[in-house]
Amino acid sequence: MIDLRPILLVHGLLLSILALGMVIPGLVDLLHGNPDWLVFVTSSALTGFFGVSLFLATRGGQFRFSIRQAFLMTATIWVILPAFAALPFVLTDPGLSYTDAFFEAMSGITTTGSTVMTGLDLTPPGILLWRAILQWLGGIGIIIMALSVLPMLRVGGMQMFKVEAFETQEKVLPRAASLASALAVIYVVLTAAWTVMLYWADMSALDSVLHAMTTISTGGYSSKDASVGHFRSWAVDWIITAGMIVGAIPFLLYLQAVRGRPMALLRDTQVQWFLGTAVVGVAMVAWWLWQEGGMDALNALRYAAFNTVSVMTGTGYATADYWQWGGVVGGAPVAVLFCLMFVGGCAGSTSCGIKVFRFQILGAMAAIQLRRLLQPSGVFIPYYNKKPIQEGVAEAVMAFFFMYALSVAFLAMLLGMTGLDHVTAISGAATAISNVGPGLGDVIGPAGNFSTLPDTAKWLLSAGMLLGRLELFTVLVLLMPRFWRD
Amino acid sequence: MIDLRPILLVHGLLLSILALGMVIPGLVDLLHGNPDWLVFVTSSALTGFFGVSLFLATRGGQFRFSIRQAFLMTATIWVILPAFAALPFVLTDPGLSYTDAFFEAMSGITTTGSTVMTGLDLTPPGILLWRAILQWLGGIGIIIMALSVLPMLRVGGMQMFKVEAFETQEKVLPRAASLASALAVIYVVLTAAWTVMLYWADMSALDSVLHAMTTISTGGYSSKDASVGHFRSWAVDWIITAGMIVGAIPFLLYLQAVRGRPMALLRDTQVQWFLGTAVVGVAMVAWWLWQEGGMDALNALRYAAFNTVSVMTGTGYATADYWQWGGVVGGAPVAVLFCLMFVGGCAGSTSCGIKVFRFQILGAMAAIQLRRLLQPSGVFIPYYNKKPIQEGVAEAVMAFFFMYALSVAFLAMLLGMTGLDHVTAISGAATAISNVGPGLGDVIGPAGNFSTLPDTAKWLLSAGMLLGRLELFTVLVLLMPRFWRD
Ligand SMILES: [K+]
Ligand SMILES: [K+]
């Protein structure tokens, strides 16, 4: 039997933090004279009661995790949190069904950004802020998880990103806490910087905060039905484009830069490949919009940069219904965007997807295969970031890639079984597992919305977001009978 | 410098065989009083002249291949043969452009079955027979190649299917030749059996031969614009369904069965997984057609079985515009078919795609990853067909899977750049590399045709067919500068 106490302790702790987070939109609604403030107080009280009770009931045991406990804790926390985070969406008037509310909360906390809410332009500020806070908390949550739990669990090659401070489980807890705090400070500073910039670009104070939060977390929830396209502003578009890139780069490198090693950021090959891929993708899309789409060069570059970076980093904002570009200029930009959707950003950032380092490792392995064909007896060592790849990492990355494809295919089939058309089913599966946000086509495309989907599809998509956010294996391992055996 | 003489010798030999093959449709046209017989005589003379000249000019050297020569020979032969096989399509009246003719010949010889020809119902028998012969020769060609050259080249894990008779390069040439002949006999016998069955099912003699040839080779060229749907026959549908399955099973197992080891066929796990996947896929599609599509149970089974097996084995026949099923019963059948398109059949058969054994190995590797997550220090050995997987095979298979995905994505982008819409671009790339035949959507779907595509797209698709048929790496290795260095 797995000892659940340390797991429940963490649940209690994080639910208490969530309850505190609910106070903020409550205050904002109170300031705006909106009756929703009561919704947030109620939700906060309920969540806080549960959280504190759990914490009190389980404290005092030893705070040490076996591998099984760590898996179970990681997977369940991302289900429990949205389960409570959904409360304000249910209790507000007109409220969402619990299915819709859970979907919205899961989509928030996994930084996916698919939404079932319509009429955002008329939605009270509290709810809009709550959606942004969920993505913002989810963003910092995943950054810390990618440095602490995931490398320890060796999920999908993440052991490569093991940090000394987290390396042993007991002794360095103070150092781990200080590292996590330092990362959180950087996260806060970046969010504040983007808030100021957006405010400077003539956004309202609330919109600036909201969009800064969902930009740095590559979450993509906007306060406008037309997403960032609503603002029709050069400055806003470029500021957010830069912010999405910042959110998709490993945050540990920012910390190293601040601590006097700025070159670490520039010398990291994952960052180089990420930026290189983004530049090539933007250039291709911009070229088509300019040459074939009838845009002038600067507008082509602006729309291409914003929407390409948004899809690649998995942010999911839109300033154009980019899936329609195919009809105008041929399928190339759509094909580019669809492929980039799977690439995602860097490991250790807020963005999801397969991630750039995995493509680097897969590329290195494929190159070695080619060389081995010519020299069957040759010995070839694959490199990542100028160091030999540790044993077991390549296999883990390749298994991840395979399971990613399999998961998208399987989820697409299940979604199709709920009656969705094949474009919605396939792109819905891809966008959920890659935590991007919008899908393809008329229903869930950048101009569409997830509200019309059947409830079963919403639960399936929520499961897909969880699967993608937790790098697949953290969830899949729980499905093994072996996991539950003694 | 690579010594080209043994390569050109094989080219000469195979071109001479191709020239002989051209005589057959010539004879048929002569019997039917069709002036095209002259086209075939001319083409045969031209091809034969080239082939015999090459052969005579290069014979006498030693018939032994280095690895580089074997790669170059394998890749070039599949370009030279369609280059000449295209001649009858150009010379007939009204003839095709050379681009169209090369596309049709490449699609034939790689057993892809994508066609640019319209009005098949009115096309003279010689040309129809020539298309079928190309697929039939391509089918036996790939069976022998998968047992001889590919394992030696260790392409994508094919070294697992090394056969003793082909093992060393020199001594056993007579045994290799006898094995190849035995396989060819089985191929001929199966084709004859299906010809008889189709004739019994009221097809004309010519149509029976044609369809038997393109069924066993999982090629999919039909003599009718409406493909096999033209015949509106229960018997024809089921006979061909069975034939496509027969064509997608390793032919070496038939040989072993004939030689007194029938259980080898049933005990082969690749065959078991192939049949199991096909049964599940057919059952799913049939269930939807029955429950949601308003078909009675028997018709649902018939249409599901035929079209699902056709897509999965990469044959590409159609008895329905199955991509339209999505609009009627939801996206599930389309999603199932789209996924099965990548699966393909068994290694050592005539069908293409990623192939079942690779999914078995990828699955075994993923399962080991899951177990390793729980027991980081455990030692796990992956198995295939109840034997431990040889060193290097898993890496080769995983690299293959990655390069497959990358190739489809890359080709889709290039196709999009020629102005194709994204459904045509993405499904066109998938159908070409998987050698299936029809794509998705209105343009190149089962009810469509490749004739309207721009010329650049046709050349790109031809390259994709070649890449897929030669298991990617045989072609990719030629792109390495290292290959050409001394
Ligand atoms: K997102
Ligand atoms: K085919």
Automatic annotation (TrEMBL), chains A, B:
Function: Low-affinity potassium transport system. Interacts with Trk system potassium uptake protein TrkA.
Cleaved signal peptide residues: none
Domain of life: Bacteria
Coiled-coil segments: none
Natural source organism: Roseospira visakhapatnamensis
Subcellular location(s) per record: Cell inner membrane; Cell membrane
Membrane topology note: Multi-pass membrane protein
Ranges annotated as spanning the membrane: 7-25, 37-58, 70-91, 133-155, 176-201, 238-258, 270-290, 322-348, 396-417, 459-480
Predominant localisation class: membrane
GO molecular function: metal ion binding; potassium:chloride symporter activity
A Pfam family hit: TrkH
Binding annotation for K(+): 111-112, 219, 315, 435-436
Protein name, per record: Trk system potassium uptake protein
Cellular component annotations (GO), alphabetically ordered: plasma membrane
Family note: Belongs to the TrkH potassium transport family.
Keywords assigned: Cell inner membrane, Cell membrane, Ion transport, Membrane, Metal-binding, Potassium, Potassium transport, Transmembrane, Transmembrane helix, Transport
